[in-house]
Amino acid sequence: MDRTQLSAVVLDLLEKETGETYETLEESTTLAEGLGLDSLDMAGLVLHIESHFGIQIETELLDKIKTVGQMLDTLEEKLTAKEAAKKAA
User: How many angstroms separate the CA atoms of 45 and 85, rounded?
Assistant: First the structure.
């Protein structure tokens, strides 16, 4: 899955979580100020992401994610690690 597809999935999950409609997700957009997500929105979004992709995002990683781009970077890392583990098994 390329970054554009990943961004589209995150946008869909974000809209389901918040009930809002977003035109696009710019990588520089902050999650709190730019998208207006509070801690409850973030928790719900992360649960949707984890369930959709079958990954786990640790709390210490979440604390470092401030922008859409950082969220996508984290997802790419997690999905790459998941694929690598699957191939090694």
Answer: 25
Q: What is the CATH number of the domain that holds 79?
A: 1.10.1200.10
What's the domain range around 69?
A: 3-83
CA 21-4-73 angle, to 5 degrees, is: 95
Determine the residue type at 7: S
**pLDDT one-digit tens code per residue, 23-78:** 888 999 999 999 999 999 999 999 999 999 999 999 999 889 999 999 999 999 99
Question: Quick check: is 89 in a domain?
Answer: no
Backbone φ and ψ of 30, nearest 5°: -80, 150
